[in-house]
Amino acid sequence: QAGDAPGSADGGRQRVERGADRGIAERVDRRRDSGGGGSLGKSGELFLGSGNDGKVFRVAGQKAALLYDSPELEVHALAVGPDGRVYAATSPDGRVYAIDDSGKASTFFDPEDKYIWDLAFDSKGNLWVATGAAGRLHRVAKSGKAEGVFSSNEVHLTALLVAGDDVYCGS
């Protein structure tokens, strides 16, 4: 399911139902308040991405250290995968990098889209990727195989939330 509110995909078309569950809306608001460019690691460390520098930092306790210096200008979102790697959403070339604990990175997903705005993992280990300027939602399997699952009339899909088996995206 993808869209501005709970809905269901119907033959490739999106039907959006109004009256979103208040709990889901509150979780989206809390996530936005925490900033799209940060993610918690499995050991409690915080990973932060920077704009205009394209850097990813690891904060543990009172110490911050550079984990990865991306060739991209901006890191818009981070997600820690079930494999423990940090996934960084970037622009202006629209790539997702997988970064290991030593800071070594590889391109995990390189769509045609110029902006990767948000990332989220589901319980099966798939990475969901919200993009612009074509407003698309992609599902990327652990193997790296990608599938476009939703195209919006909106130019940018900027927010994702995985809740159980449901995936919500906003613009």
Unreliable residue runs:
1-36
- Helix share bin: under 10%
Q: What class do helices, strands and sheet pairing give?
A: mainly beta
First-last Cα distance = 15 Å
C-alpha Rg (nearest Å): 15 Å
Number of DSSP E strands: 16
- Largest sheet: spatial strand order: 3-4-5-6
Can you walk through the features of this model?
The protein has one helix at 22-34, and strands at residues 7-10, 13-16, 38-40, 46-49, 55-60, 63-69, 74-80, 86-91, 96-99, 105-109, 115-121, 127-132, 136-140, 146-151, 159-163, 166-170. The protein has 171 residues and is mainly β. Strands 3-4-5-6 form a 4-stranded antiparallel beta sheet, with no helix packed on it. The model is unreliable at 1-36 (pLDDT under 50).
Detail the topology: elements first, then pairings:
Elements: E1 7-10, E2 13-16, H1 22-34, E3 38-40, E4 46-49, E5 55-60, E6 63-69, E7 74-80, E8 86-91, E9 96-99, E10 105-109, E11 115-121, E12 127-132, E13 136-140, E14 146-151, E15 159-163, E16 166-170
Antiparallel strand pairs: 1-2, 3-4, 4-5, 5-6, 7-8, 8-9, 9-10, 11-12, 12-13, 13-14, 15-16
Keywords:
single chain; 171 residues; mainly beta; four-stranded antiparallel sheet; 16 strands; disordered N terminus
In short:
This protein has 171 residues and is mainly beta. Helices cover 8% and strands 49% of the residues. The longest helix is centred in the N-terminal third of the chain and has 13 residues, at 22-34.
